[in-house]
């Protein structure tokens, strides 16, 4: 650090650049993003330098400032291409892809990752190849295509172990865990997260540690263990603030809000969602913005304020479609259907459920499919069509068994009740 400071003060660019890059690489691994940005900015006072643009872009992306990050990465990309540095070109393409993904522009993200992948194979960069496979998997996961996501993650994992990339291994384990959680396979999700967490602590990845703690909290929340969920979220929140991870902070606030909503503490839920929403808008997280709007709508629906609920859902739905979040689109459609059902408008309710159902199947969301089918069954039951209600509930119970859903016992009991009722009415 002292060498770098003296080199900048003495207007010695080569020494400053070499010292700055060495220090920044260490700091990036330990989530010291504000320090990286300050050092790279100081280096750039001595003139353009691809490595310093790259490091500063990374720091800005990690702290939720996508547009300045893109500007830095584009400068780095141009300079690396001019110099013929193929490996660095691929790394920069990867990071530009990350920025577009965070902005919800999945098409551009995939375009940049697919430009990076053959370059990395060409130069024999196995670690970079694995990271890019991971990135492509992440985009497919965000698009709700979980099978393709798992395929890419499972290509990446053995390469990362082969090259001894412990941080990358932890990231991939976390990513696989997230997919299993979204598929409703919670035990597999926890298994992968608990493999990742000690590795992240071992390598000093504080931002990754916070993300994994948040993910473990999310699994416990989905299992109904709200105390454990809050415990993990409250471990994660101060870490996100410590490392300046605004996007991660918003995610954790959103998740804390969800736990309070499920506990029936709606005011605390709204308080946390309303802290999360402006941060998500500030960092340009459109997918996250839609998720938080949906969650706020859900609280208003549970408070009986159906107009406010619909207002928030209808703000969320076009954003879900804009960013290509198919799984989220299905969730919001289901929630809109539920409001119409509670208003007694069964036709509109069924219309929205039937829009959601093929999307749930398309993305492999069995737990979500069970929820939508359950809601359809309740509409048919309310309309006196027990045959159709029973058929839907049979699907629900089958899906519950597949994902070990906590509602399996309750749904099975309801199915048996409807079968008895149907037999008595014949």
Automatic annotation (TrEMBL):
<dbReference type="InterPro" id="IPR019734">
    <property type="entry name" value="TPR_rpt"/>
</dbReference>
<feature type="repeat" description="TPR">
    <location>
        <begin position="90"/>
        <end position="123"/>
    </location>
</feature>
<dbReference type="Pfam" id="PF13424">
    <property type="entry name" value="TPR_12"/>
</dbReference>
<feature type="repeat" description="TPR">
    <location>
        <begin position="210"/>
        <end position="243"/>
    </location>
</feature>
<protein>
    <submittedName>
        <fullName>Tetratricopeptide repeat protein</fullName>
    </submittedName>
</protein>
<feature type="repeat" description="TPR">
    <location>
        <begin position="170"/>
        <end position="203"/>
    </location>
</feature>
<feature type="repeat" description="TPR">
    <location>
        <begin position="130"/>
        <end position="163"/>
    </location>
</feature>
<feature type="repeat" description="TPR">
    <location>
        <begin position="290"/>
        <end position="323"/>
    </location>
</feature>
<dbReference type="InterPro" id="IPR011990">
    <property type="entry name" value="TPR-like_helical_dom_sf"/>
</dbReference>
<keyword id="KW-0802">TPR repeat</keyword>
<feature type="repeat" description="TPR">
    <location>
        <begin position="250"/>
        <end position="283"/>
    </location>
</feature>
<feature type="repeat" description="TPR">
    <location>
        <begin position="330"/>
        <end position="363"/>
    </location>
</feature>
